[in-house]
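Researcher: Good morning. I'm working through a list of sequences from a screen, and I'd like to move beyond sequence-only analysis. For each chain I'm collecting a predicted structure so we can compare shapes side by side. This is the next one on the list. No need for commentary yet; just the structure.
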Amino acid sequence: MHEDNPVREIVSLFGGLTKMASMMGHKNHSTIYGWVRAGKIPSWRDAELKEAAEKNGIHIPDDTHKSAFGGDVSGTGVAA
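Model: Good morning. Structure tokens for this chain:
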């Protein structure tokens, strides 16, 4: 994983903070940056992340996905 921060790894897969924010429909990257700093994505953002990844052809490995949510997700990773 990317520096032991699975959120940072996911952000890298999307091409960076700004690109990920845009793909997820956020006006700016501050929300995503907060996730990176916390090292965790809130579980209620799972569907939003999966939708953005699938729409943009991004594969998030299962272990990275699960770690980014602290293991608190109903499904596993996202495959495009």
